[in-house]
Amino acid sequence: MMNSLMQTFALVEMSITCSLILIWILQKIAQEVFPFIVKVLLLLILANLFFWPLGMSLELPLAAYVRGVTGDLSIVTTLLLWSTLVHSNKSTPIAVKFVILIIALAFYPLALGLSMHDPYAWGYGSITFLLFVLLLALICGLTNWSKGVWIIGLAIIAWSAHWHESANLWDYLLDPFLALWVFCSLFAAVLAKRKEKARSGYLFRPG
Known about the structure:
By secondary structure, the chain is mostly helical. It is built from nine helices and no strands.
């Protein structure tokens, strides 16, 4: 019974996440931010399409197939996506993105066996690691990104409550999609900065 309930919650979570990604894509195509009520209506329609089996020789909901490929996204990634429903224009601070990228670049090679030290094992209840995560929340607070404090706090609560199948805190904080998004975001910011600098240099060039 409990396992069935967890599976249902996981499908609801994935259905909402997939719907918000589609809404984000639609906004990019339209090159405008949809009004809140429009995003809510689209979310309700799309989430139902992802959650309920649609027939067409599909035995499971679309969300189940997506989850089968991606697994459960981290709580941090999920909440960052969900927050776009309300705050589409408020971006994650550059400093926070940089910290996430550094952690991902250090974590994944080591977790895949590059050295004798496996940081993934720290996620199984290490007090030192938990203190490190709380330090990250403090960094978010110091950068005036209160949303980040709430997201990390909720990720810890979800881990404590075993919201996902994993019992490892890392899986609630980080996933490859978050690392890829941070990398692409920082790369795009660097390109935009260089383009802006080149444009200003062209405008103020002598003669």
